Amino acid sequence: MLAIFKKEIHQFFSSVTGYVAIILFLLANGLFLFVFPETSLLDTGYANLDPLFNLAPMIYLLLIPAITMRSFADEFKTGTMELLSTKPLSSWEIVMGKFWSSLLIVIISLIPTLVYYLAVRQLSVDPQLLDNGGIIGSYIGLVLLGAVFTAIGIWSSSLTANAMIAFLIALFTCFILYNGFDALSKIPAFAGGLDYYLQMAGIKFHYASISRGVIDSRDIIYFISIIGLMLYLTKLSLQRKLWQKG
Questions:
Q1: pLDDT tens, 165-218?
Q2: Cα separation of 220 and 141, whole Å?
Q3: Of 75, 106, 140, 153, which cross-links 81 as Cys (Cβ 3.0–4.6 Å)?
Q4: Which DSSP string do the residues of 144-213 spell out, in sequence order?
């Protein structure tokens, strides 16, 4: 697994694409947080990072599928997947190597956003009034959200040899799981009963819960379950393709 992990990290940062993806993520966040007046932290009058944590999931919808879309798609396209399968590696080791390397890249893209926290702290009249617990919870939520989107992206890439199709499948699936259930719960027919359970089925509900600074075991279990399911589906997809090739 470590060999796959190192290969993926090296491959990502050996091309300009990896750097461009991270720079665009940070640039988009910077523009929305400090330039565009509708979402600017400077115009809200409050020292908090809520705009960042509300915006980042939407940017993740584009960033993470772009990071993961080539994970397996390029292996299938170039024929190196068959060569990789001859190595003394299990399907799980291949999948987990791809997953952890992509997740590390997502976390690396998130680390520079700590500058925004320092900026807000400096701009605050009283830094002690900052909701540090909520900010820490929101960062934990973003890491878990990134892990879920990464698992979905890896699964999507295992379905096709076309990286663009993998990107679109991941984008659609992430959007549905994040926003779909929440939007469905707002249909009047589900009001007063099913609406709450529909919200609980979606990622947005659990991300918002953690972002309040309260780490609930139910939210953690939810994220881990979704990640585990998507990685298991990736393993099945990989085995099916290798069996068909064989």
A1: 999 999 999 999 999 988 888 888 777 778 888 888 899 999 988 887 778 889
A2: 9
A3: 75
A4: HHHHHHHHHHHHHHTT-S-HHHHHHHHHHHHHIIIIIHHHHHTSGGGTTTHHHHHHHHSHHHHHHHHHTT
For the stretch 116-163, pLDDT in tens is 888 877 777 666 667 778 888 889 999 999 999 999 999 999 999 999
Q: How far apart are CA 42 and CA 53, in angstroms?
A: 16
What ranges in 69-90 are assigned the alpha helix state H? 73-78, 80-85
Evaluate if residue 37 carries a pLDDT over 60: yes
DSSP state of 112: G
* Domain range summary for the chain, segments of one domain joined by +: 2-245
Question: Could you report how far apart the first and last alpha carbons of the chain are, in Å?
Answer: 23
